[in-house]
Write a structure and sequence with these properties.
The complex is a heterodimer of chains A (115) and B (113). Chain A has strands at residues 4-5, 10-14, 19-25, 30-38, 45-51, 56-59, 62-67, 72-77, 86-94, 104-105, 109-114. The model of chain A has no long low-confidence stretch (mean pLDDT 93). The relative contact order of chain A is 0.34. Chain A contains no helices and 11 strands. Chain B is an all-beta fold and 113 residues long. Chain B is globular. Chain B starts with a strand and ends with a strand. The mean pLDDT of chain B is 92. Classes of the chains: A mainly beta (115), B mainly beta (113). The A-B interface holds A 4, 6, 32, 34, 36, 41-46, 49, 51, 89, 91, 95, 98-108 and B 6, 9, 32, 34, 36, 42-46, 49, 51, 57, 59, 90, 92, 94, 96, 98-107, 109.
């Protein structure tokens, strides 16, 4: 049962254009959402997050949008750069009594930014 | 600043051999610690998490175990590896507060032959 889904395994975008990566979730208890970027043979690097009390969070070229009613979030990268080429993982967590705060990850989207 | 160290970076082990992967965190106290695995072409799956010394919770039944002998040390082990244990293993830490991200190590690529 995949609680976090990234339905697009890959995305190709021209340099300078906008990249939009999408993520859907099924667990209505999720209240914290994150995006990670991962290069081959490295651990994921935290990019940006959003809590369920917001619908948008922006950090430089990266903006995350959250639509709670649709259980959907997206990551916008503007403008896209060749160095953004990586696998992007969407993740979510729900408040746990034990302070567990483990993340549930999607399967990732490989972004290729063409020069 | 906080850093996380994970070793070895790559490992090739025969079926039936034991496993020990180590992870240490510096620059923070009382972190939550996690072991994740990424199988080929798939997302990251949570294997174990720990909220304190000696406190280990397992997320999925499997051939692996974890231990936390010290506050900032997390070990992933197996007595006898299976072919299906091959994958990319990632250690991560987080502070114990709401809405804080996990920070990952660089991972260990394990190939069981």
């Amino acid at each position: 049962d995949q609680q976090v889904k990234q339905n697009s395994p890959s995305l190709s975008v021209q340099e300078g254009r906008i990249s939009i990566l999408n993520c859907d979730y099924t667990n209505s208890m999720f209240d914290y959402f994150l995006w990670y970027k991962k290069y081959p043979a490295e651990g994921p690097t935290f990019l940006i997050s959003i809590s369920s009390i917001k619908d948008k969070n922006e950090d430089g070229r990266f903006t995350v949008f959250l639509n709670k009613s649709a259980k959907h979030l997206s990551l916008h990268i503007v403008p896209s750069q060749p160095g953004d080429s990586a696998v992007y993982f969407c993740a979510a967590s729900a408040d746990q009594d034990t302070g567990r705060r483990a993340l549930t990850f999607g399967s990732g989207t490989r972004l290729q930014v063409q020069p | 600043s906080q850093t996380i160290h994970q070793w070895p970076a790559t490992l090739v082990q025969p079926v039936g051999s034991p496993l020990s992967l180590e992870c240490t965190v510096e620059g923070t106290s009382n972190p939550n610690l996690y072991w994740y695995r990424q199988a080929a072409g798939r997302g990251l799956q949570l294997l174990f998490y720990s909220v304190g010394i000696g406190q280990i919770s397992s997320e999925v039944p499997q051939n692996l175990s974890a231990s936390r002998p010290q506050d900032r040390q997390f070990i992933l082990s197996s007595k006898k590896l299976l072919l299906s244990d091959s994958g990319f293993y990632l250690c991560a830490w987080s502070v114990r507060q709401d809405n804080s991200p996990l920070h990952f190590g660089n991972g260990t690529r394990l190939t069981v032959t």
